[in-house]
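ok trying again, last paste got cut off:
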Amino acid sequence: MHWKSFGRVAAWAGIATLALGASPLLAETGADSPTSPRASRDPTCTNSDNSIKHLVVIDNSGDGSFQCLGLVMDGQAIKGIRVETHSFASTRRRTDSERVNVAEFSTAVLESSHGAVLDGVPGHDAIILQGHLPTLPGGAELVTSYLYNGITGEYRSCQIRLDRGPDSGWRLMDRHERIVSRIVVKTREIPLIGMFGISTLEGACS
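nice, full thing came through this time. structure:
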């Protein structure tokens, strides 16, 4: 997700909101949006092994990038979380230049008062994950927060559960006890101005 120019967009969005005055003009973009630059590619994440257990794909459908969220393992013990971000550089002629960045967050960061920032830029943390990682054999309740309104700084959140499956593997569950394997980030935009927040994390918070 392109958050580098978010501060400038948020400032313009504040002016535009006063001018427009009507919330129906605010647009939400998702995987099915006809104006989305999402390329026709399937997200491919690092396969699970003894040290990494893949959990979920976070699909930033607004710009075609995606993230792979997984657990960092030491034997059967969870040591932290891993975020593998795949972004695609666009040019006039092609959008196939892929960049992959990997970040790992310790249990201490995840359990801190702020949590682990999965996406965003300083001052505009877009998606945050927070909670206590489980010790065997139990699960754990986690909270994911997202920047709903970058103009006012409003965040919204929902609970997800990290749980053990019947095959003894780890998985994410939503509040309805459904397995979460893909999360689609749906953004909020103002026409001619651009993105100023996230409407929901579909698949986890919907």
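cool. Confidence is low (pLDDT under 50) at residues 3-25, 31-40. The longest strand covers residues 77-89.
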